Amino acid sequence: MLCRISDLRYKEVINVRDGSCLGYVSDIEVDTVTAKIMSLIIYGKAKLFGLFFRGEDTVIQWSDIEVIGEDTILINMRPEYRDHHVKSPGLLGKLFG
Length: 97
What we know:
Order of helices and strands: HEEEEEEEEEEH
Number of domains: 1
Low-confidence stretches: 82-86
Radius of gyration: 14 Å
CATH class: Mainly Beta
Distance between the termini: 42 Å
Shape: globular
CATH architecture: Roll
Number of helices: 2
CATH superfamily: PRC-barrel domain
């Protein structure tokens, strides 16, 4: 199956260890030297109507991906490691950061 990077945005990410739905792919990290995808990023949930703050982003390493299907991406990672986040500044952080 061929998949474009833009197609990943419409795939739901599910952790097979606990069955939790993490959300949809928002971004990817690419190693520009080797041209390999390093990780998928799921943006944190919006807070205060999404205007001022956003929760922390979830970073999923490429090695944690088990299957990329038609509608879903199945990952296998321990739930406590899911808290390896990248802080997102939100609107106020961007304006005053």
